[in-house]
Amino acid sequence: MVQEEMRKGPWTEQEDVQLVFYVKMFGDRRWDFLAKVSGLKRSGKSCRLRWVNYLNPALKRGKMTPQEELLVLQLHSKYGNRWSKIAGKLPGRTDNEIKNYWRTHVRKQAQDEKKNTNKASVSPSSSNFSNCSSSSANSPAEDSSTERNDCVELLQVAGENKIYEGDEQNMMVYSMDEIWKEVESTEEIETRNDLPVMASTTWDYNYCPDSLWTSTHDHCYFDNHQDFSFFTG
DNA sequence: AATGAATGCAACCGCAGCAGA
DNA sequence: TTCTGCTGCGGTTGCATTCAT
């Protein structure tokens, strides 16, 4: 049998239109089937990826908001590199997007940190902030039953880019800079010890109840508000 | 204005888990 | 129970754009 040559690389607008049409017709399952019936010279895998990461109308476009950034931080400390899990808590964001975001920003942060370290030989990481992470023995993948047992309150004031932690007497406030430094320092530890990223138990996730969020991987798409006319011009 | 570096993002690859035959 | 195909996930790569010099 002659295997039909599969297309690779960037998708054309025409391919997008075609894929959207067939997903609308058959749903976003059975990607191999979809790839075949659509006539696209793409693998089912490729079609799925294109849909999930780009064409899905439920997706949010544009920069991450500070709230989202904070949430990613918190969730990463909880789940580690479980991007799909994290994406599930961020409606309209894909695992790929979050993964890219994380890599970019952690890398940037690491570079900034390096610069700072070169300037000042004294490490700033002796803050009480790093205490809480280094004292944590939980891995990000630790089961959630223990995750919520910490007797700390974790609140986020919208738009303020700070985490408020602790009880009324011992309230601590962390800026995003501190958070990033913490992330960076934990990553260094990970690199050195070949251990998973230590979850800061105090970064528990509890200001956004799960019920408020719907997974981007849930089977829901094409609500009536979607308008694809721009595809067809 | 040119060009090299840095950054952001889309897409691919390989693997694991799951479901159905 | 085993096999096979499909789906989803995480890691990685490569290209396009933006920025700095």
Automatic annotation (TrEMBL):
Top-level lineage group: Eukaryota
Presence of the UniProt keyword Transcription in the record: yes
KW Lipoprotein (keyword) present: no
InterPro entries registered for this protein in UniProt: EOBI/EOBII-like_plant, Homeodomain-like_sf, Myb_dom, SANT/Myb
Swiss-Prot/TrEMBL GO biological process terms: green leaf volatile biosynthetic process
Domain Myb-like: 3-55, 56-106
One Pfam family cited in the UniProt record for this chain: Myb_DNA-binding
Region (Disordered): 107-148
Amino acid composition bias (Low complexity), ranges on this chain: 120-143
Localization per Swiss-Prot or TrEMBL: Nucleus
Domain (HTH myb-type) ranges: 3-55, 56-110
Keywords noted in UniProt: DNA-binding, Nucleus, Repeat, Transcription, Transcription regulation
UniProt GO molecular function: DNA-binding transcription factor activity; transcription cis-regulatory region binding
GO CC annotation terms, alphabetical: nucleus
Transmembrane segments annotated in the record for this chain: none
Entry protein name: Uncharacterized protein
